[in-house]
């Protein structure tokens, strides 16, 4: 876990102390690999303990943080992911990703796309449809359940396990499209375990019957999943998922290099 030091303190006296403290708490949580204790926030930001708990409760009520009671830790909530998705929808990610996704579709002869996490969903920013391939539901601007898509699984597998548990705490958190895919937290944990072991995510008919996908996360300089690149093809075609995942991994690492100056270590090599 990476915890910043006291230089996180604001040098000038803020005009609105509560707003300043709230933003500093969110910034601190955003830089961690997983949820942290309230006392850690107090120690590293120099905010009184009573104020930290008060602000965390307000943030929790609005969905910006979640409280893992069993572990006495706090992490980012779905509303914070919505903000991240809103930023990612702006030009830098889509602008840099579009030519890489187009090149990926050219190399593989299959449809390719770029997506980001937003709450429990993925949001598609770029789609490049290959010639003579069926229409997909992954048009730009479409949202789909993250746990059912290769893109979403690739990003979820790169998140801290506590964060995944906060996003999918019970069976009611799981949407369904085709009757396939995980429908309980234990099933999702097994799917993500396989993604981590394999180095890329797969999906077989869980979004649309008859279509398969592979996906690789685009990691930022801290290892956080900023986006994911995926390839989709008809299941009747004899395609090698590992080869397609390797091509997607190449695009993901190149996008990471363009965004953060260093290639992502995620995905097959």
TrEMBL record:
HTH iclR-type domain residues: 16-78
Domain of life: Bacteria
A Gene Ontology BP annotation from the UniProt entry: negative regulation of DNA-templated transcription
IclR-ED domain segment(s): 79-261
Example GO molecular function: DNA binding
UniProt cross-references to PROSITE patterns, sorted A to Z: HTH_ICLR (PS51077), ICLR_ED (PS51078)
Key words of the record: DNA-binding, Transcription, Transcription regulation
Transcription recorded as keyword: yes
Protein name: IclR family transcriptional regulator
Natural source organism: Microbacterium aurantiacum
């Amino acid at each position: 876990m990476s915890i910043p030091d006291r230089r996180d303190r604001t040098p000038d006296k803020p005009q609105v102390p509560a707003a300043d403290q709230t933003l500093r708490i969110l910034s601190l949580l955003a830089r961690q690999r997983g949820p942290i204790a309230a006392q850690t926030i107090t120690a590293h930001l120099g905010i009184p303990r009573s104020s930290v708990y008060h602000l965390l409760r307000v943030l929790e009520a609005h969905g910006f943080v979640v409280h893992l009671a069993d572990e006495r830790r706090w992490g980012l909530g779905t509303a914070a992911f919505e903000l991240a998705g809103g930023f990612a929808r702006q030009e830098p990610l889509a602008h840099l990703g579009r030519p890489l996704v187009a090149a990926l579709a050219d190399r593989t002869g299959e449809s390719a796309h770029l997506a980001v996490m937003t709450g429990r969903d993925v949001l598609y920013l770029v789609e490049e449809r290959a010639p003579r391939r069926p229409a997909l539901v992954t048009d730009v601007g479409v949202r789909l359940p993250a746990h059912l898509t290769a893109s979403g699984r690739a990003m979820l597998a790169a998140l801290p396990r506590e964060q995944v548990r906060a996003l999918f705490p019970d069976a009611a958190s799981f949407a369904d499209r085709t009757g396939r895919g995980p429908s309980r937290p234990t099933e999702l944990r097994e799917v993500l375990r396989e993604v981590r072991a394999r180095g890329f995510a797969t999906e077989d008919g869980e979004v649309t019957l008859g279509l398969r996908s592979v996906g690789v996360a685009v990691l930022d300089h801290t290892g956080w999943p900023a986006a994911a690149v995926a390839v989709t093809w008809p299941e009747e075609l004899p395609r090698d998922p590992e080869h397609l995942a390797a091509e997607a991994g190449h695009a993901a690492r190149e996008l990471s290099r363009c965004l953060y100056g260093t290639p992502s270590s995620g995905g097959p090599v």
